[in-house]
Amino acid sequence: MASNALSPEEENYVRMALLLTGISPPAVRVLFDKEFPPASLSSSINTTTTKATLNYLKRKKVQWDLLFPSSGTTDSKTFDVTLMIALLRNLPTSSLVPPVNGYDNLPVTIETTPASDLARIKHYRNLLAHLHDSKVDGTLFTTAWKDLSDAVLRLGGNTMKQECDQLITKQLDTSSQEILQAKKDIETIERSLDLIEADHTKIKKDIITLKSGRESFKKSCDLLLTESKKDIVVLKSDHKSLKRSLTSDHKSLKGSLKSDHKRLKGSLKSDHKNLRRSLLCDHKSLKGSLKSDHKSLKRSLKSDHRSLRRSLKSDHKSLRRSLKSDHKSLKRSHDLLQKKQTVSIKDGKRVKKDVKSLKLDHDSLKKSHGLLQVDQKEMRIDVQNVKLDCDILKTSQALIQSDQIKTKEDVKKLTSISEDPVPWNRRGI
């Protein structure tokens, strides 16, 4: 059958279908293989994050089996345009920048990025699937063909652009396998569109559900606001009643404090008077007691002074007698020493030995002296304690000390009289 068996609008439809199903998939695959190299495609889509993204892109079991085949490796040559565009659109890529108006709108002519070319191919595939009469008018065909062929040139290169140029001038035969294949491809596009519409319907339902949820949330918020207003009114009334109660409590407490203050003031005045009288009585009795104690202490000190004076006199007499006897014995010892001035050599050696023994005794005395110093420190501490006790008695011993000073002066006079300033063995010199 000749090509003129098809009307011009039907020819336009067939040529666009052949372009979208035969030439545009390899062009899109060139970009897809750049973003997802075939060698690492399987590992790229098998990550946990990527699988989570792919779950909502799942369309039908055939395409899911293409992504994750039960045998063999994942190959982009088995992917159709819809699947490749969906993956490029939703999976992270290194260089793709989304179109200005998104993937769901036809980009403007001056926008020539790879992502905008994908949006053009997607737009015209959807447009062709919605044409149930299988006809495309000349104006739409011219615009669509220029947009699609330029996109194929940018994505796939000059070779694929030449295929587009050949396709636009090629004679079509309605009985050819190309037309049949184009119809099959169109049916595939329509099925894909049905799936997209089903997803769109589901999204609409989700939006309706969200709207109803929003309305119920708004109602609950309004109800909560109403209850909050009621609670605020109740709180205001409670605040007023509490304020009145606190005011009355404050007044009653103020009156009670005033009466307590007056009563406490009177009680303190009477206690102060009683305490003052008691202190005056105690002061008088203590003064009388101190006077009587002072008199008795004075009498006791006088008697002690007399007895001490008598004791010192007797001690002085006995000391004088003892000094006289000691003086006589020293005189005899001096006579003996004069007789023994000529000492033999043996006695000198004996004396040396005695000196050595005396040195040893001296060392032991040093050690004993160290111990005595320790004891002396302890005695000093005890003396300090005794001094503290003596300070208490100093006031009462003032009279005794004056009498002791007089007694010491008498003793010194007696001692100076008894001592001979010139020794007896020096008198004849």
Automatic annotation (TrEMBL):
Keywords: Coiled coil. Residues 40-178 form the DZIP3-like HEPN domain. InterPro entries: HEPN_DZIP3. Transmembrane segments: none annotated. Pfam families: HEPN_DZIP3. Residues 244-271, 291-332 are annotated as: Disordered. It comes from the Eukaryota. Residues 172-199 form a coiled coil. This is DZIP3-like HEPN domain-containing protein. The lineage of its organism: Eukaryota, Metazoa, Spiralia, Lophotrochozoa, Mollusca.
